[in-house]
User: What shape does this take?
Amino acid sequence: MSQDQDSKEEAPEKPSAAKIAPEEQQAKPQERAKQREKGVDDPKRAIDEKREADELERKIARLLSMGIPIGSVIGFVVVSVMTNLSLGLLVLAGGAMLGTISLFWSSVRTLGGDAPLPEGLAARVFANEVDALEEEKRATLRILKDLEHERAVGKIDEFDYAELVKHYRANAMALMQALDARGEVFSGDLKKHLANLFPRDTLTLLVGEDLASGEEPKDKSDSSKPEPAVNEPQAVAGRVDCSSCKTPNEPDAVFCKSCGAKMGNESPRPEETGGAS
Amino acid sequence: MLTSLPLYGTALILATMVLAGYTFFISVLAGSRNSVRDLQAARLGAYGTVALIVTTVLLLAYAFVSHDFRIRYVAAHSDRSMPTYYLLTALWGGQDGSLLWWMFLLSVYIAACVKSLGTRVARLQPYIIATLMVVVMFFTVLMTFSANPFSTSISGARADGDGINPLLQNFYMIIHPPSLYIGFVGCTIPFAYAIAALVTGRLGIEWIAASRRFALFAWLFLGIGNALGMLWAYEELGWGGYWAWDPVENAAFMPFLSMSAFLHSVMIQERRGLFKVWNVALICITFFMTILGTFLTRSGLIASVHAFAQSSIGTYFLYFLGIIASVTVSLILYRWPELRDLPPSTKLRRAALLGGWTIIGITAPTFFLMSRNVGLDPIKAVATTSALCAFSVYAGVELVYRRLTRELALVSRLPRIDSFLSREFTFMLNNWGLLSIMGIILILTLFPKISEITTGDTQSFTPPAYNTLIQPVALLVFFLMGAGTLFGWSKTSESSLKKAWRLPLIVTGSVVVLHLVLGSKFGYPAIVWAPPIWDTAFGRAMRVYNAITPLLGVGLFAFNAAVIGQEFNSLFRARRNAKTESTTPKVLWYAGILPGFFYTLTELSLAGRRRYGGYVVHFGIALIMLGFTGKSWTIDRETTLSPGQSVQVDAYELTYKGPRMEVDTSKRMVFADLSVAKNGKHVGNVSPAKFIYKKSPDSPTTEVAMLHSIADDLYVVIGNVNAQTKIASLQIHINPLVGWIWFGFLVLIMGSFVCMWPEPLAEEARAWRFVRGFAGATASIVFGVMLATLPHHTAFAQTPESAGSKMGVALDHTGTIHIDNETENEIFRSLKCMCGGCPKEPLSSCACGNAEDMRNTLREKIRAGKTRATILAEYEAEFGKIAVIPADSWANRSIYLLPFVAIAGSAAFVVKFMKRGTKSGPGANTITPTDTKDGASPQDNTRESAKFEKALDDELKDLDK
Assistant: This one.
């Protein structure tokens, strides 16, 4: 049984990396209906209003996340000094309860798609996922640095040093190549090397193609560096652009998440598996 | 709300359960759908759960401060006379509250973990949160159904509460449980990372790197918690020792050992890609041990001096232990191919799961039925057979896998240890040693139950028996701690080895010779004979080994100190030779070596900080081991003095000045004032005392007075003072080198801080170097000085002005079981209380009236000049063989083979690798893992290798600067 065959058996449990990256920012159909009721027909105006509303909500969330703890502690100190500790503790408990309510309310709203995600969250999540490769590289670089140190303090001799450095430099360079050439067509040898270094799903996520499957991307333009910015109204591969406002939408969206216009079904559905290309 | 506060508190616990369940659900959803929106909702849910737990704790704190005696827990652990700080510490003073406190600390960890995760490791995050929520749910279930701290008393609110146990009214008891809990609870976080790694199959260094700081933090606080527990026992219990191998102490020590093993073996995975299974298993074992320890403490399964009251929560813990074991074993079996670097396939997974669980399915009922046949109830049967099952599963899965791997002609890519002359090999041996010690302690702790199964009688081991058993393996680990640092990774050439070992061996040899020649002259003889544990050939053989342990302890301390000194010398010499620009301000060096030293350490690269911080930790452990060795030279004396009389104990001369009485609102205090001179020079005053509390006049507590010095501690306990004649009976102990134990812990803490020092971000590293380094040096020293002053802290006992000393005085309480000296202690610990009412506890810990009568009878025999052997023989003749601990039976003798089995296991490893070393030779060419896999290095296959070579050199230059 080849490794590729084995890897394919794993496919169902390895979810697509594309799903992590540009997270949907869908508004609920009710919201879109409200917009239509209000007569908001101008798509650009609708986008601006949505952004303003989201920004306002984010501001409130930031204010609450700072305000509740600080307010509770100040209240605790003031009440404790002016009355007694037990009342102060009650104030603190009240603050914590308020925090609980606001956090769970935010959680439920986030889950339901009503609350906006923190700005650029999806992009940061994706970028940090990519940085796992960077972390591997840094770990290898540290080993090389440590080897230098061991040689300097006389712990290993020159022969061993040279041999070990050769091995770890090879690994480090493979990782650097992977970082540098992420999304490009990899040579067969480098593919093999990387496939041996990392699990399949990590590789798929990091380099943007399923190296372990041995399939070459059909078009270089398709495997270009993934664009993580989810808030930009630009076309993202695997999504369907709205014919009115050009905002990229989820492939199964019935209405545009930005202007509320009805989406056509003419766009092809993207592959469920595969990279975040 | 206030009128229904108990109900409100209970509702909060229920709400926590529901919300933790909600968070668990959406975390799993986020993981399965890979949705950032779901993940964000889960993160908010986790924060919300944390806030709700904080609310619950604050509500209980309010109940304590406002004396809400409707709540049973508040009434049982506080009263109106208690100061506020005690009211707040009563939060964890009893069982129900301590569970809530556990959950509170876990919630703080969860908040810190979720915050630190941020947007990193997005694939692992959902499962980390889900695992943590499962633990929260378990504690809420426990509190809801069995240990609700808000439950009310049937009889209604009382006018006043019972107050807190006087034994717990001590400074160390305020900080010891939280420290230990911080360590215990902290183990949950790396465990959650490991579970997430197993679920997602991302078993590389990602989870290890992300959880490293939490693991170190938990380990550090386990260490601090154990140290504070030792301090409490030393200053509070009044029998002159610091560690009694009580089940609760053992429960706290076992996770410390497995976590130590984990912290070392992850280095091997990072460096060589080895030990994936081992690392995952170790962290799961550590978490399992924390829960098992809690189970032992709280279920009443094992009798302990300071166990909580027996309750039904043991059953819940047992179920939870079962769930943890099942889930982790299943996950490890499922991920076995990845963990063994085999190509993952459904066939292999099925084989692992089926094989593993088939073995469990066969072994568990077999062991269970065997246990049932000797009349054991199901809970005990499951508890005692789990260890056997775990071993069988591992052995079985390994066999199944080896066969499958052979049949399928699959080649594992798992790298191998190249040479036994390598650091990873010594680390592996060290791990084996640490796990062996843990295993020995576990078996001895559970031995009362094991013996109940096998012999039908409860038998327990005494501290000397523990010491005898653990010493051989502990000394081996102590040796490996130093030896490991002398080897390089992968392999070490002969010339490097000679160079590295020369100085440590010379130093060790010199110290051993000096100790043999001069030790007796200075009161630290190299060979100390103690009475045999049994008067049999085996007992006498063990006695010979134990006699030389002082020499081994001192010799190995010298070896480790020389190794560490050599390493630091090499570091500073290499820096000087490389003309590394040092930004350590000279003023720090002039202010004493330590500030400059620690500043320089925090300046090192991440790898350097971890390595040299680790050496500092090792030095701390070496000091602790030296302190333990001091136990061999303890001097105990019991005497009776009239005012004006003196007594000479070794170099100390104590002059009794007379008794003194003081009274405060809660108690009467009777002091015996003594003046102390050492070698003819006055060194201070001590005032041991008896405190008689108004609430419990029949149980006076005894206050210990001490004079600390570098060489030894003078430890004085008052027996009684005759009010008419003013004659005082005193127990005087001289405990050599005890101060080094506490100092060693300080060094260990400082070293851990160096290891945990945060990694600088690339853009801020240079700008903040000075500030960070300076802050590091200052923080380490301030923290160290702060902790160094703790042993002199006088807690909340009354401190008479006259008790001030040039050397420092400590004064604290003791319990109601009065033990006068070490001779009594040894005898009482060897005999069981045979009243029939108690669970045959040792006389040293049984508080029943019969035990007290028996202790008095035995005291008379001691005064009559009877030896320990005679007294034990008489007791055995009166009550039968079963009354003596440990009974001289085959079961006890066989358990003494444990350390030798552990050492033999290590030897087997050595032989195996020596054979391999002979085949390839230690200096043979190492085949790197990647080369093995590919057959060619990537630069041969890449046209742009020169570009990457240059880029690599540039990155190496800037790394961690």
About this structure: Residues 334 and 346 of chain B are 9 Å apart (CA to CA).
